[in-house]
Amino acid sequence: MTSPACVRRPLWPIVKVRRRRSLISLTPLIDVVFILLVFFMLASSFLDWRSITLSAPSAGAASASMEGAVLVEIRTAGLRLSGRPIDLDGLEASIRTRMAEKPGQAVFVKTAAGVPLQQAVAVLDRLSAAGVRNLSLIRDQAR
User: Which residue, of 15, 37, 41, 95, is most buried by count of CB atoms within 10 Å of its CB?
Assistant: First the structure.
């Protein structure tokens, strides 16, 4: 096969040059992530700085101070107010009415084994919101 006369062949061989993929620099990406991190750290509030004051009764004064006190039991199955099952909203309403009648009334909170700490803190927070000022934690003597 002869080549046509009108087609010219180049004098040098054609070499295909492979283009390198351009690499993405990580520096701008790290800068953007850092700026977003600083923004969200400054713009958000991570903790609600409220404190709940607790007092632990002494062994000798426990029997005298328990008269007329309200007992709130936190169990894995639910809450109990003076031995009766109750939900968290009902507990707050009931304690709020008792605190309106007798503002200095003592409230004892007893937690059962296996109760998550967050559940206990939620109950303590609700009791504090209901107006309880004389709040004590009691523990089971068997533990």
Answer: 95
User: How many whole angstroms separate alpha carbon 88 and alpha carbon 82?
Assistant: 14
Exposed, middle or buried, 70 (CB in 10 Å: 0-12/13-18/19+)?
buried
What kind and span of H or E run contains 125?
helix 117-129
pTM for the predicted model, two decimal places: 0.56
Going by C-beta distance under 8 Å and a sequence separation of 6 or more, which residues neighbour residue 108?
66, 69, 70, 71, 72, 136, 137, 138
Rg (CA), the chain: 36
- pLDDT, tens only, 44-91: 876 666 666 655 555 555 555 567 788 889 988 888 888 898 888 888
What b/e string do you get for 31-45 counting C-beta neighbours within 10 Å, with b at 16 or more? eeeeeeeeeeeeeee
Task: Kindly state the tokens that stand for 20.
Answer: 């390198």
* CB proximity list for 85: less than 8 A, separation 6 or greater: 78, 79
Model confidence pLDDT, tens digit, residues 115-143: 888 888 889 898 888 888 888 888 776 65
Residue 95's φ and ψ, nearest 5 degrees, are: -70, -35
